[in-house]
Write a structure and sequence with these properties.
The complex is a heterodimer of chains A (294) and B (313). Chain A is mainly alpha-helical. Chain A has twelve helices and no strands. Chain A starts with a helix and ends in a 5-residue tail after the last helix. In chain B, helix 9 crosses helix 10 and helix 10 runs antiparallel to helix 12. The longest helix of chain B is centred in the C-terminal third of the chain and has 38 residues. The chains are: A mainly alpha (294), B mainly alpha (313).
């Protein structure tokens, strides 16, 4: 009897569950995604509170401590001019994470409106935007980012712009595809029938339905952007010395592999951990936001 | 089938046009007057005027584009400002090196990615499946320049088995060529292997749960025959297509890998050009990689049409 009585309640509770609460419940059921989220929060905390938690000044050189192996004083060792590697890895998180997030922000800001316009308008507008997107996707990601960064000039800001522009077509294509599918739904027809202006339909009715897919893609693209920023900094086109960045730290580490391998291990590990966490979180979000999964 | 292929070719034209516009526009991103940049430290107004006339920089931008595209279509990609050599000549010298690397990387990626993907699907839900999934994720998430540095540390510095840098052509000394390229090829193939593994697993799982596999099993065929002859053959078609598309990623990845292993290929060419502000070379390399990518895309599409009987008619 009690089972019969509780069933309708459970079903009502499930029906009343908001999409956000449902997504969070599903995400919580995936330990790997939760651990990844916790590590990302930790990394962001490390980047934000770098001045408070870094044990030493990341750019202060000390020629008495050149290429010292990890010790109690310097947990990750020191680099070729005696700078503490732990401090540089902590401060480097600022460059890498901000590049990841800001460049994806740039890609979203340009890509989502273009995708909405292409998908909703159709016709020539769609043809032009789609072919331009195809053309950008035809240029390999890193090569285009390097070319853009080279032409804009080497700096972290320009690297972010270059990565953001290069990542834009992914979001144009995604938003366009989703808009095409959503715009034929009855509720969009209804919104149009009651006289809603185009921008209102796009922003109030279509965009909220595209957001889950955008969130998943954005999370995965942050991982790509972190690698791209590290690659550009490794080549000398991103963060400029003496400011720390994981990519530029690897560049200098390459020259001292024989006698100071620790210089290469820690920044590389930092990139790897942040990238794997964003990938795991993206995979988890994809499952959690998929309407077909339970 | 021919209608489908011609349609695909016509669809490509605007894409190719936009690619050329993007690459042409790159030089206009440069702050300042391109003629003054090309003149370098030479501030002589006569020299600057001569450069402006030579590169049609005194013409409106659409006219400049027409001159540029006319040159490109006739095989003239401009001249390297630093090396004073035609960009097309540089490209034809360096491209085979990168292609050798990319080909080796693709073989490594296919063997590892497809092999592990099949194993993972066959042993779905077991420990081996989880292990392969973790390996795939690690492969995708490892920055290839870090992997390259770590491999140099292990195999060159610590063990002394392989050379840390340099390149030998396979036509000069085949084994030495393999020794110099195996590490960079593995680094390049690693990320693609992860992607291929995930796709192979998905395609194999779908094939293994299909009706024709169930029928094959019901006929009493051994599991090995079912997997290899029935499921794998059908599952691998989209994976091979994806492999062709990933070739573009290999060209991208080669930029850093060649830099780390000091291989004189396409990637090293663009990086050196970037640092020497040799913009014609940068444009030429981007143009050739984009064209290669578009061509591979088209070949993958045609291949897909050829192997898929439903699209052939």
């Amino acid at each position: 009897m009690s089972t019969q009585a509780s069933s309708p309640q459970t079903s009502t509770a499930l029906t009343l569950e908001s999409p956000t609460a449902r997504a969070w419940r599903r995400l919580k059921a995936r330990p790997s995604a939760l651990i990844a989220l916790a590590v990302i929060v930790l990394l962001i905390g490390m980047a934000v509170f770098a001045p408070l938690i870094a044990p030493y000044d990341p750019i202060k050189q000390n020629y008495m401590l050149v290429r010292k192996a990890p010790s109690w004083m310097h947990w990750m060792g020191t680099d070729e001019v005696g700078r503490d590697l732990l401090a540089r890895v902590i401060w480097g998180a600022r460059a890498s994470l901000s590049a990841g997030v800001i460049s994806v922000g740039i890609a979203l800001l340009i890509g989502v409106p273009l995708g909405l316009i292409a998908g909703y308008r159709g016709g020539w507008t769609d043809m032009l935007i789609s072919r331009f997107t195809d053309a950008m996707l035809a240029c390999p990601f890193l090569i285009l980012a390097i070319a853009l960064a080279a032409f804009l000039g080497p700096s972290l800001g320009n690297a972010m712009i270059a990565i953001g522009i290069t990542a834009t077509p992914i979001f144009v294509r995604l938003t366009r595809g989703q808009t095409l599918a959503i715009k034929t739904e009855d509720y969009i027809e209804a919104a149009r029938a009651v006289g809603n202006p185009v921008h209102r339909i796009a922003l109030r009715h279509i965009l909220p339905n595209v957001l889950p897919s955008l969130l998943v893609q954005a999370t995965l693209t942050v991982a790509t952007a972190i690698i791209a920023e590290a690659s550009l900094s490794f080549l000398g086109l991103g963060q400029q010395p003496p400011l720390p960045s994981w990519g530029s730290m690897l560049n200098s580490a390459q020259r001292f592999l024989t006698n100071a391998p620790w210089m290469a291990i820690w920044p590389g590990l930092a990139i790897f951990v942040s990238v794997i966490c964003f990938n795991l979180l993206g995979d988890g979000l994809r499952d959690a936001l998929d309407p077909r999964s339970k | 089938m021919f209608t489908l292929i011609s349609k695909r070719l016509i669809q490509l034209l605007p894409t190719v046009f936009f690619v050329s516009v993007i690459i042409f526009s790159l030089q206009h991103l440069l702050p300042g007057d391109p003629a003054m940049i090309m003149a370098g430290e030479d501030n002589d107004p006569a020299v600057i005027a001569q450069i402006r006339a030579q590169y049609h920089l005194d013409q409106p931008i659409p006219v400049q584009y027409l001159f540029w595209i006319k040159g490109v279509l006739s095989g003239n990609l401009g001249e390297s400002m630093r090396l004073k050599v035609a960009v097309s000549e540089l490209v034809t010298t360096k491209l085979p090196v990168t292609l050798q690397l990319a080909l080796m990387a693709m073989i490594i990626a296919l063997v590892i990615g497809v092999g592990l993907g099949i194993l993972s699907a066959v042993y779905k839900g077991r420990a081996l499946d989880s292990l392969v999934n973790v390996l795939g994720l690690i492969g995708i998430s490892t920055p290839n320049f870090w992997l390259g540095i770590m491999l140099i540390f292990l195999f060159s510095v610590e063990l002394g088995w392989l050379p840390a840098s340099g390149y030998v052509s396979p036509f000069e000394d085949f084994w030495q060529s393999m020794r110099t390229t195996i590490m960079p090829a593995f680094v390049l193939g690693n990320a693609i292997a992860g992607v291929l593994m995930r796709h192979t697993r998905g395609a194999m799982l779908q094939a293994l749960s299909s009706d024709y596999v169930r029928t094959a099993r019901a006929k009493g065929l051994s599991e090995r025959v079912v997997v290899i002859k029935h499921a794998m053959r059908n599952a691998l078609t989209p994976v091979i297509t994806l492999g062709a598309l990933e070739f573009g990623t290999l060209l991208s990845g080669a930029v850093l890998t060649e830099q780390i292993f000091t291989i004189p290929g396409f990637g090293k060419l663009i990086v050196d050009a970037v640092f020497n502000r040799d913009y014609a070379v940068v444009q030429g390399v981007v143009l050739v990689t984009a064209s290669t990518y578009i061509l591979l895309n088209l070949l993958a599409d045609i291949g897909y049409i050829l192997v898929n009987p439903r699209l052939r008619d």
